[in-house]
Every structure is written in structure tokens, then in C-alpha cells.
Amino acid sequence: MISAVLPTYNRAPLSFVSGAGAWLTEADGRRFLDFGSGIAVNALGHAHPALVAALTEQAGRLWHVSNIYTIPEQERLAAMLVDLTFADTVFFTNSGTETAELAIKMARKFHYENGQPERVNIVAFEGAFHGRSTGAIAAAGSEKMVKGFGPLMPGFVHLKWADHEALKAAITDQTCAVIIEPVQGEGGIRPVPDQCLKGLREICDATGTLLIFDEVQCGMGRTGRLFAHEWAGVTPDIMMVAKGIGGGFPLGALLATERAASGMVAGTHGSTYGGNPLGCAVGAKVLEIIADPAFLDHVNRVSGHLLQGLDSLVARHPTVFAGVRGVGLILGLKCVATNTDVVKAGYDAGILTVAAADNVLRLLPPLTLTESEATEALSRLDAAAIALETATKVA
Known about the structure:
The protein has 2 domains: 16-34 and 293-394, Aspartate Aminotransferase, domain 1; 50-290, Type I PLP-dependent aspartate aminotransferase-like (Major domain) (Aspartate Aminotransferase, domain 2). By secondary structure, it is α/β, with parallel strands linked by helices. Helices cover 38% and strands 18% of the residues. The strands form 4 sheets. A 7-stranded mixed beta sheet has the order 4-12-11-10-7-5-6, sandwiched between helices. The two termini are 35 Å apart. Strand 8 (183-184) and strand 9 (190-191) form a beta hairpin.
């Protein structure tokens, strides 16, 4: 008999009832270090007092009015994002998947309005994850994502990750955009080298192709900059943002240059809940905190401490871990053991992590993580590795 909740997840046998900062408390009283952050969502941890205050204050005034009217909280957050980024304009959504849909529409509409309606193809990369709508899974293209859901949205060209020659050949007079994550999350914590992002920008400029960055998982301070592409010194034409921007409240945003957004006029897109007063009030507070240079310095300092400890962890447990990858606080442990087994061992050790492709264990702690909490996490990961080693010897 099917469960009341559609069984599309293999859920862990854990039920959390409260959280504070980097910690979650299970119904039975056990405390866990949260190195998943709701999959990079709880950027400021659980129950951050400033976010609680922002949400509570706004909830006492106004929840929803719809985009038929001007929403002051939305205008404020949009102005903050424009001031802090490459963007000239912002559209608010409720999720990363919704931003992917708009990115696809915007890129195709741009070329249509500029007299090139044949430019509809979008180049994407193996290992990508852009959401779970039919358009977003078509962009990702992996069998795991698309099997059984055809016919899919056409117009996507899929390339192997980091195949530069294939990229050059793939961009034709029918290409409208290239979409890429500066750091792949679901694909196994794979950062795109700075020189590759620069080269990609140059190719797009030379061919009149729009460049879309998906920073849903790697953005909002997670790499130690406000957005990951800033390390390479390049900017996109369109950027997808979600997850961390709401600090746990459902919120997404599509950022774009005026040129890229020129085809999106009244009536071409909409959202009932996107940009609602509650979400934008929280998002403004999240952005205010994360964009502070001192806060980003903290992310980089804690990341350095954590990386040093992870290197030592790998060296001590070569039958469990093979290496460390990532930047800032979007990190991955390449596993020798099966990554899902490491996740389960972590449950027993009191630490929550997330599996990713390429047998990688994702480490996505809150950006508010302290050095002492990072040290505690290393101790718990060490305990999980020892438990796996012991189980293997016994078997």
C-alpha cells in the first residue's frame, strides 16, 4: 500500500524536531552536526535569530499580495542584488528549478527578439543538475534524471565535463546559450578551473552566445565569495540563484543583464508566490549578513581549517577516503568505500552528510560553522571511518 507521502525518497530513519546553528536534535534527543544544511539551503544554520526576527516581523504585517502589485520587500532585495552583482535586473522564484525554467526561456527569447529565432540550442555538461522539472532534467540529460519521462524538451546539447575542444565544436549558429555550474554539486563537487570559466566567457562573447551560470548550490557565500564565479573574475549574462538565498525559506532568483533580459516584457513570465513579502524579507537579511566581507573572511578561515583536517582524515583512512575536493564550504570527500555507507556510518557518529555522484560525500555545513565545530565534525567523520574499517575486517 502506497504511503500518504509519495515515496520518491529513500528517507533516513531520522526525524528532527529542533535545530540551532550547525546542530539538529532528533526526536529521541540525539544531537547531530549538520553538514548537509538541507542540501546547501540553511546557509546561516538553524533558527538564526536575525532570520527568525525578520520572518516574524514581516509575518505580522503582510504575507502575500501577488505580483499584480509593487512589493516593497521585493524591490529592496532586487536592488541589493543588483548593487552587489553583475546584474541589472532580478526575477524572484520559489526554487532553483523555477529559475532554470526562466533561464531557458530568457535565453531563447533573447535571440528570437534579435532576429535569430533559429538559435534555440543550449549547451550543457555531463554531471550537471539544474532541477527536476521536465525542462531542467532535459538540460541535465543523464539517464537517471530522464528515464521514463519522455518526450523531453528538445534543444539541449550535452558535452563531457571539461572537454574544451568539444565545446568549441558544439557552439554553432543554432546555439543560444551555455549553462554551467561553476562548482558542480550533485555531480560530485567539481569546481570549474578559473581559466576554463574565462575561456568559456571568451567563446560566448566571440559567438554571441549567452552564458548562464547555475549558482543555486555553490552561490551565496559558499565558496568564500558571494558567488563562485567571482574567483575567476568573469560574469555571466544570466545567473540562477536559490537554496542559500532564503536561509531555509523557499526563495530563488534569476539575475540577468539588461541586454540578456531585453526580450522579457510584461506577460512573458510570471509567478504566483515568487517574490512574496515573507521570502524577500528573509532573503534581504540573509544577503545583508553573507555579503559582509568579514563574514566571507570567516567562511574562508573555517574552510582552511576544515580542509587541513580533511587531508589528514584521508591520509589516516585510505580504505575509506581517496581525496578531498571543492572550495570554501562546498567540499567533497572522494570515497573508496561506498559513499552511502559512509553517510550511514555518519548517522551513528552523529554527523549528517550528503551523497553525490562519482562516489563523493558532500560536506555542506552552515556558513556560520565555527572552527571548534569543524574540529568536532572531523572527529565524528573519523569515528565513522573507523566503524567502517572495523566492519570490513569483521566481514
